Amino acid sequence: KAGVTQTPRYLIKTRGQQVTLSCSPISGHRSVSWYQQTPGQGLQFLFEYFSETQRNKGNFPGRFSGRQFSNSRSEMNVSTLELGDSALYLCASTNPANTEAFFGQGTRLTVV
Amino acid sequence: TQLLEQSPQFLSIQEGENLTVYCNSSSVFSSLQWYRQEPGEGPVLLVTVVTGGEVKKLKRLTFQFGDARKDSSLHITAAQPGDTGLYLCADNTGTASKLTFGTGTRLQVTL
Fold it and tell me: Which residues pair with A21 in a beta bridge?
């Protein structure tokens, strides 16, 4: 069974640009969550999508947005990038029993 | 907002030593999970504890949940280099799709 796949693995962007990250969940998992990991703030919840609808949202500005497609694949978009957005962005899909999250390897975003 | 503090922040030990890391919450856990994250990878679930006072063992790892469900510990016996990584506690707030993570303990085990 394939795991959670995130693309790309690495990205370098310039301040002010926007970026889109992609996440393919484990087959059969309908919930996809996104997290930001930084040395200073640790691992923080961004938002969760279930059946193409945002079900939960963390405390991040509106520049961070996402969507989910009918095949449960999800994308995350960050607009008007700031230096502080440099981070590892992790995606997780959750099993149908909602007891375990399975994480991808992450996308390392560097904003210069 | 729930705050999860882990201690120590960093730990460097030699192979064969024992260690304990701690996780303390400002409020009662819904249920507590421990994850390990290796360099270049996402976190991987080690265990879920739900009941106050619960103890779970996973080979050389022993997880304990406090009676009041506001703290937990992870004890590793005879650490090995393969135990190296970032150990994270998390509250699943009633759903594994929205996790609140602790500050993390970075463990380095050397030969």
Answer: A76
Mutation for testing the A interface, residue in B98, B101, B103, B106 having most A CBs under 10 Å: B98
Q: What is the pLDDT of residue B94?
A: 78
- pLDDT over 90 (residue B93): no
CA distance A98 to A100: 6
Give SS3 for A111.
Answer: strand
Count helices and strands (H / E) in chain A: 0, 11
- Mean pLDDT, chain B, as a whole number? 94
Query: Which residues on chain A are in Cβ contact (under 8 Å) with B44?
Result: 103
Give B4-62 pLDDT, tens digit per residue: 999 999 999 999 999 999 999 999 988 899 999 999 899 999 999 999 999 999 999 99
Contact B100/A at CB under 8 A: yes
Q: Please tell me the distance in Å from B111's CA to the nearest CA on chain A.
A: 26
Check if the beta carbon of residue B26 is closer than 8 Å to that of residue B2: yes
Give the pLDDT of residue A1. Answer: 66
Residue B42 near chain A (CB below 8 Å): yes
Query: How far is A104 from A7, CA to CA, in rounded Å?
Result: 10
Which residues, including other chains, have CB under 8 Å from residue B12's CB and lie 6 or more apart? B107, B108, B110
